[in-house]
Amino acid sequence: MHILLHGILNLPVWGYFVVGAIAIHFTIMSVTLYLHRTATHRGLDLHPAVSHVMRLWLWMSTGMLTKEWVAVHRKHHAVCETPEDPHSPKHKGLAKVVLQGAELYREEAKNPETLEKYGRGTPEDWVEKHLYTAHGKLGVSILLVINLVLFGIPGISMWAFQMMAIPFFAAGVVNGIGHHAGYRNFECKDAATNVLPWGIILGGEELHNNHHAFPSSAKFALRPFEFDIGWWYIRGLNALGLVKIRRVAPTPVIKQEAQVGMDTVEAVILNRLHVLRHYGRNVIVPAYKHEKRNACAMRNRVLAGTRKLMIRERALLKPKEERRLRVALARSKALDTVYGFRMKLEKIWDNNAQSNDTLLHAFKEWCHEAEQSGIASLQEFAAHLRSYSTQSQTA
User: SS3 sequence, 108-143?
Assistant: First the structure.
């Protein structure tokens, strides 16, 4: 009877919480390292032994299959913030995504077209076909039995919390709040935000805007104050020879000479989200502050709050915000100019399928016009942009 009540480990009360927290943390790390950064985006290669330990644990602790998770997440990136997005708060509603995120995943995973189009390159070995896929509910049942044997009756509660953790935190918080509230380092085309700058609880997935800006990067923390615990696990595994890091987010390389060539254009396109961030901070913000200082009270009311609208990805502006922005730009020639230059710059990399000569001509013309604008911050930015390179000085 004692073993039935307390299990063969007979832990103290605090022990159940510690073991439960460790188990949930390992599940989260398996999701972010194996399912997300390795299987979905190929940002790193895990050692086969590490990959399979995580596959096995995910089968037991969540019942999730690699192909289904990968396919749904890839589709999310491909059609983000559209009606086809499997879990967009914009179209599904925030409450539904937060509270029923797992159900949305399972619903989309039943779509054979999604699995066929987005699930390629995932494991199709004997274990995957004949055990994990064929017996999806067996894994969580095995974990329940193990919990009962080791921890007794409290093991049922530990198992229940384990089953709820990923559906709420990963499917709900990251996909819901991570597209609704938070801060943005980069103006990517979707509404992804960084929920917190410290990616500890969710293994780094809190840094969702950084991830959507650079999906294939194995590292999510991109600013000095940000912390991605998943990246520290990757570094530890790399030191042990258990992981190979394939890609991280690019960082601008600045050369000394200002001779503009195709290398410059390629560097600007590669680092376009860094460029936009720099443009917002060093061109739009100074121009906005200058206008506010020299505007009358009435024009100040018109300009109030439009700084964020000028920096925000235009496709994400609501109709009311779009109208406010148009009115503000109509009242300020300087702001209209710097915003217009931003739109022209984006058009260059949006049309990067053009010939190299056309791209280079458009870029040189943009720099020349910016330098002739008479706006000091825009002139300085153009000079800085000429210094971008894809190769370091020591290369």
Answer: HHCCHHHHHHHCCCCCCCHHHHHHHHCCCCHHHHHH
What pLDDT was estimated at residue 169? Answer: 79
The span from the CA of 388 to the CA of 395, in Å, is: 14
Q: What is the pLDDT of residue 91?
A: 86
Question: 276-331 pLDDT, tens per residue?
Answer: 999 999 999 999 988 888 877 777 788 888 889 999 998 899 899 999 999 889 88
Strands 253-254 and 388-389, sheet pairing: antiparallel
pTM value is: 0.90
**Mean pLDDT of all residues in the chain?**
90
Is the separation of the CB atoms in 359 and 352 below 8 Å? yes
Q: What confidence score (pLDDT) does residue 3 get? A: 62
Distance CA 26, CA 21 (A): 9
Indicate if the pLDDT at residue 35 is higher than 90: yes
Task: Please answer whether residues 264 and 389 qualify as being in contact, where contact means their C-beta atoms are separated by less than 8 angstroms.
Answer: yes
Alpha-carbon dihedral angle through residues 144, 146, 152, 156, given to the nearest 10 degrees: -20
Which of the 8 DSSP states describes residue 315? G
When mean pLDDT is compared across 130-139, 162-171, 177-186, the lowest value belongs to 162-171
Segment 246-261 shows an average pLDDT of 85
**Virtual CA dihedral for 346, 347, 351, 356, nearest 10 degrees?**
-80
Structure tokens at 102: 């797992």
* DSSP for residue 270: H
The SS3 assignment for 386 reads coil
Between the two ends of the chain, the Cα-to-Cα distance in Å is: 70
Long-range pairs for 330-337: beta carbons < 8 A, 24 or more residues apart: 331/299, 331/302, 331/303, 332/291, 332/295, 332/299, 332/303, 334/287, 334/290, 334/291, 334/375, 335/284, 335/287, 335/288, 335/291, 335/303, 335/306, 335/310, 337/373, 337/375, 337/378
Query: Cα–Cα distance between 38 and 233 in angstroms, integer?
Result: 13
Q: For 96, phi and psi rounded to 5 degrees?
A: -65, -40
Residue 81 has pLDDT above 60, yes or no: yes
Residue among 142, 119, 131, 116 nearest 61 (CA): 142
At 172 the pLDDT is 80
| Most distant pair of Cα atoms in the chain: their distance | 86
The pLDDT assigned to 301 comes to 83
